[in-house]
Amino acid sequence: MNVARQADELAPARRAVAIGTFDGVHRGHRRVIEAALASRLRPTVITFDPHPRTLFGNRVELLATVERRLELLEELGVEDVLLLRFDEALASLTPEAFAESVLRKAGAEIVAAGDGFRFGHGRSGDLDLLERLGFEVRRVPLVDSVSSSHVRRLLAAGAVRDAATLLGRPAEVEGTVVPGERRGGTLGFPTANLAVASELLVPAYGIYAGAALGRRAAVSIGTNPHYGGGERRVEAYLLDFEGDLYGGRLVVELWERLRDEAVFASEAELVAAIGDDVRRTRAARRPPDRG
After folding, report:
1. What's the chain's Rg over C-alpha atoms?
2. pLDDT at residue 183 above 80?
3. pLDDT tens for residues 190-237?
4. Could you give all domains of the chain from N- to C-terminal order, each with its CATH number?
């Protein structure tokens, strides 16, 4: 997949463009992208970084890093992505200027977007305007009340299986593996400690069953209250795995929330609880992928 940062970096082509922020690349986003993929023209995604709402002082807990978003788009069969930096210069463009300097310059003839898509200064442009400007517009209606905001609410409550239904795939948490306190190794369950970017959403505290690197994983999100911890940690115990993950990027699927964090009467009880978490992780079922 080719990734460009400016419209003129794209090779000349007649394009069907899917446009949106696509945070999480959920089922609704996929319908927009599929509308572009279904055309006879070269399928292309135009998306933005950072999230447009952050430019106006709003905090947005993202569902995926830009790197992960691009991976998900490639998995869908997208050939080209125009990843635009959303800054004051871009936000100040009139809708007509955006259409000419971005869409037309990129070679867009077909534009697919959610039915409520707005663009240009003050969000004053809409799909009707694009039609008047000569683009063929493919309007994609909302899918079963699927939205990034709804996914965020579910994950904040720990409802990872419900979130998977909206995403069309398991929820994820992503980070870089960094040294931790190495306490898990002394208990017989060595974990990968994830440093998660501050702009990413981390699901509710608790213990989860999931997977990473093709292995099932028991995942702890929280403060390790048994040891009086105060700082949030995301730790994944990859079952039947041996290897050095330090410094690497790790994407962890979250399949099922197993329980709350807890303080135990003894370390032996903690080890027994972790052993039960591992047993339940082995038995857990991955949420099905949905289109």
Report:
1. 21
2. no
3. 999 999 999 999 999 999 999 999 999 999 999 988 777 779 999 999
4. 2-140 (3.40.50.620), 170-283 (2.40.30.30)
Collapse the DSSP code of 55 into the 3-class scheme (helix H, G, I; strand E, B; otherwise coil) and give the result.
Answer: helix
Buried-state track 47-80, b at ≥16 Cβ within 10 A, e below 16:
bbbebbeeeeeeebebbbbeebbbebbeebebeb
Give 82's Cβ-side CA count (13 Å radius). Answer: 27
DSSP state at residue 146: -
CA angle 54/59/61 to nearest 5° reads 105
Under 8 Å CB-to-CB from 262, ≥6 apart: which residues? 225, 226, 273
Comparing CA positions, the residue from 83, 77, 82, 1 lying closest to residue 38 is: 77
Residue 212 dihedral angles phi and psi, to the nearest 5°: -160, 140
- Measured CA to CA, the distance from residue 119 to residue 223 in angstroms comes to 41
- Positive or negative CA dihedral for 7, 63, 142, 166? positive
Phi, psi (degrees; rounded to nearest 5) at 140: -115, 115
Contact 41, 14 (CB under 8 A): yes
The pLDDT > 90 percentage for the chain reads 89
Distance, in Å, from the CA atom of 32 to the CA atom of 24, rounded to the nearest integer, reads: 13
**Strand 136-140 vs strand 206-212: parallel, antiparallel, or unpaired?**
unpaired
pTM of the model: 0.93
Pairing between β-strand 192-195 and β-strand 80-85 as defined by DSSP bridges: unpaired
Give the Cα-Cα-Cα angle 250, 254, 257 (nearest 5 degrees). Answer: 140
Q: What gap in Å lies between CA 224 and CA 227, rounded to an integer? A: 6
Q: List Cβ neighbours of 176 (8 Å cut-off, separation of 6 or more).
A: 194, 195, 247, 248, 249, 250
Quote the CA–CA distance of 18 and 112 in Å, as a whole number. 5
Alpha-carbon torsion angle 205, 208, 213, 216, nearest 10: 160
